[in-house]
Structure formats: structure tokens, C-alpha cells
Amino acid sequence: MIQTIRGFRDILPEDIVIWQAIEKTASKLFEDFGFKEIRIPIMEKTELFARSIGETTDIVEKEMYTFPDRKGDKLTLRPEATASVVRAYIQHNMGASDSVQKLYTIGPMFRRERPQKGRYRQFYQINAEVFGIESPYIDAQLILILNELFKRLGLSELKAHINSLGCKECRPTFQKELLGFLEGKKEHLCENCLRRMDKNPLRTLDCKVPECREALKDAPSTLNHLCDKCKDHFEIVKNVLTEQNVEFTVDKTLVRGLDYYSRTTFEILTTALGAQSAVAGGGRYDALIKELGGPETYGIGFAIGFDRLAEIVAQMINGEDVEVKDGSSTTSEFNSESDFMNLLSPKVPDIFIIPLGEKAIRLAYMWTSALNIAGIRTETDYSGRSLKSLMKRADKLNAANVLIAGDKEIEDNALVLRNMKTKEQFFITTDNPVEQIETLLNRV
RNA sequence: GUGGGUGUAGCUCAGUUGGCAGAGCACCAGGUUGUGGCCCUGGUGGCCGCGGGUUCAAGUCCCGUCACUCACCCCA
After folding, report:
1. How many folded domains does chain A comprise?
2. I need a surface site. Which of A36, A90, A152, A162 has the fewest CB within 10 A?
């Protein structure tokens, strides 16, 4: 049997319900905040990612799916979306038509890592990016949007971690000081951190190795070295969040793995997925657009891990003992009436037509098609099986009604429409069953 | 890339010192000649992940391999 390749997976119909509900909830929210959807390619020239994410990051060094195409160009399956959105922004000169652009996109990303819970080689992200706004209010607003999204999904316990990395003015002096500090602690650092010292010293700050954490306990913090502008910027972000009752923690170890971030960075963390704690993350990247050949433009954005989010939502639904099978009962108090929970209701047939006999099967097919076209969810069965087994099937499908159409009923011009819940039965005639069913369904 | 755990029916899992491959759920049929859910009876369904080895005999022991999984690393 041919199977999916490692780290790739199928999202089956039973799971898609949650995916679609999250997607609808997110795009509604983003559009209410003025974001427009953009769809970008899944493949780009390798150079785009190498230059934006950073040549020495793990992603670029060893996690990308890169291969030559027929003419020898190096192509890469995108490991993240921001680089492509920035490329599109530059390529179509989007800043010219409107100096402020708010964009979101949803789609798969590819990284060749060892799979584990909440981490796949093809994984999905929802991305939001804002171009052309320097003000810290937009930093706060992005975190507010994430907070609101998680609230709407019933995940109010998730909390934001935020930090500021400084800008091209204040970061170099900080890096110098950090390097000096690291030199003094060299013998206590892990191999990885020693490597990081050369490549990207900031990254030592979020090392998880206990010895490193201990050694770096008193390491200088970016927060103490921010220039006045960066300091003011960060203060406003924090003040606004506080005023809007968005809970957050200042986390000076929040450095993030992509080189392009400056000033505000943030992550939304969870404990629900073992070691994979980040559900969403993002930050400001004011230098990136120019770096990639565009005009000097402010930029900030975030990515939400769709697979992880869907997993947490699924856990929440199961944990809350929410009954979604027939969409009728939900026990979860705070969100049972929410738009999101309504989106989770599965679609079940309004009618299941049970034909008994050859003539009946032909008519059942005709009626089913007509009802489907009329927008009434209808199923039938062509196997010629017994009434009892088809009743069972109707029950399994959770059909609201069955229409029993045996050769006998057709002969007598009296079809039986049975409500599966109340067991009420109505007779309808064979001349225009579609219209009769429409009126009966509206009445009940 | 490194380390641990697990691979048996569609699903969840038993399988003793090596001795006929099992259960529950699901599916199909019947009990009820044309009315679902509950119950009862019967049935379909297996390269025991794959390849080698040891043995009279391997689901079981050994080696390899692949996949899944958890953790490290990294990140969404």
C-alpha cells in the first residue's frame, strides 16, 4: 500500500468540520478589522527565504524542501508565508495604491523536521501582515486580534508573551554587550550556544538547556538597552494592551528564530500540546521590505499554527463533553451559543428516500436530484436492500425524515413521509413530491 | 540529526514458558414476510508493518528496516 510520506497527513472529513469553523471565524474577524485575503504560491525561489529568514537559521540551513527545477533555478517549498507576502507587496508595488496594506492568507507550509505532536512537515498557518504603519497601536491591535480570535474559539486561557528586540539603532550596542557577557560564561554554555555566539547571539537567550539558563540568568536584557524610540514604542504597546484588558507577560527570552524581527515580538503559548507550546507568534519587521528590494516600509505580522489550533479546539470540545453528533446539544456553558459552536454543527440529511422495488429506485433517484437542486439535503440508496436495513441506514446518517417509496406506495399514490424523531407520518402524492416535501418541511 | 516507546481485523486492544490468530465496537444478514435506535443469533473481515535469522514450530526470541509516537533541537 502506498502511504503518505513522513510528516504529511490527510485531514479527514470528520476533522474538516473544525478546520472550516476555525477558518470562517478567523477570516470574518480579520475582515472586520480591515484585512484582505491574498493567495500566494506554495513555491518560491530559494533566495527569497534565504535572504528574509536568515542564512544561518535552522529553517534555512536544514529544514527547507529545496530542489533545482529543469533550468537549474533553485526552488523551495515555502517554510513560512511572510517572505512571500512581502515579495508580493513589493512585486505589485502595493504601497503605491494605498500606503497601508492589511493582508491575511491561509495555507500550507513545509519544513523538514522530525514530526511529533503538533508538528508536521506539511503544516498550515493563518498569516496576517500589516504594511505601512509605524505606530505601536498596530502592534497592540494584532495581539488584540489574536486574543479575540482565541476567545471566540473558546480558548480564553491562552496568554500572550511579548518582548522587544530593539531596532537597528540600539541592537548593535546590545549585541556587543551580550557578546562580552557570553565570553565570560563560555565554559558553562552548551555547544549550540557557542555556535550561536558567532551567528546570532540573541538566540542564546532562549536556550532551553538548564546549564545555559543558569549561566544566562543575569545576562543583559534587550529591554534595558532599548533606545528612547524603542522604549516609548514598547511602553505604548503594553499600556494599550492593559487598557484593553488583554493579558500578557513580558518575556525577555522571547527572541524568535527568524532573523527579520525587530522591536515587538510576541507568542501565544499553550500547555495542551506537550513540547509544542507556540500556537501563534509574530513580530515587527521594519527592515525586511527594504532588505528584499522594496521601498522602506514598516511591517508587522503574525502566524497562527492551524494544526495546533485545531488540535486544541478538538481537545476542548472533547474535554467539555460537547455533543456535536447531531448538533442539538452542547453542554459547554460559556460557548454553546457562540457562532463558532454553531459552525461545528454537522450537516445531516433532511430526507432519506427509501425506495423498495425497481421502479421505486428510478423515481427515488429523480426525486433526490430534484430535492438536492432545490437545496434540501437528500440521500437515497440504490442497493435494493430491505426496508429495515434502509431504516437503519437513515438512522445512521442522522436523517431528519425518511420518505418510504415502495412500488406499493407508488401504485397507491400515497408515499409515507416519516419524522425520525417524533415518528409522525404524513402521506404525500407522487405527482409533485418535491413541492409537498418543501411545504411539509417548512411547516414542521 | 539524536534518544525512548509502539506496530495484531476498518477502530480500540488481548494474545501465558515459542504450540490451531482472539474480543469489543463497526459492517452485513436474520430474529420481526414492509418501519430505525435496545436486545438476541449468525456472518464478512488478518502477508500479526516489511525483510532476514534461530527453531520441529515464531504474533511471541534475535538482527535489520520502515512507519507511527513522545522527547531533545527548532518552531506554527
Report:
1. 2
2. A36
User: Does the structure show a pLDDT above 90 at A315?
Assistant: no
**Of A46-55, A61-70, A176-185, the least confident:** A176-185
Q: Which nucleotide is nearest to A357 (CA to C1')?
A: B34
User: How far apart are alpha carbons A377 and A10 in whole angstroms?
Assistant: 26
Within 7 Å: CB of A392 and strand B? yes
Q: How far apart are the first and last CA of chain A?
A: 49
Contacts with A183 (C-beta within 8 Å, 6 or more apart), sequence order: none
Tell me what percent of the residues of chain A surpass a pLDDT of 90.
61
Note the residue count of chain A: 444
Measured CA to CA in angstroms, residue A216 lies from A186, A191, A211 at distances of 11, 14, 8
Is the pTM for the entire model greater than 0.95? no
What ipTM is given for this predicted complex?
Answer: 0.87
A251 touches strand B (CB under 7 A): no
**CATH number, residue A245:** 3.30.930.10
The residue assigned the cell 436492500 is A385
Domain membership flag for residue A288: yes
Q: Is the CB of A90 under 7 A from strand B?
A: no
User: Is-contact A376 A441, C-beta < 8 A?
Assistant: yes
| 8 A C-beta contact, residue A260 and residue A291 | yes
Residue A183 in domain: no
According to the model, what pLDDT value does residue A62 have? 84
Query: Do A274 and A361 share a domain, yes or no?
Result: no
Would A210 be classed as within a structural domain?
no
Distance between CA atoms of residues A279 and A272, nearest Å: 10
Q: Is A408 helix (H, G, I), strand (E, B) or coil?
A: helix
Write down the mean pLDDT value for chain A. 89
Other C-beta atoms lying within 10 Å of the C-beta of residue A84: 23
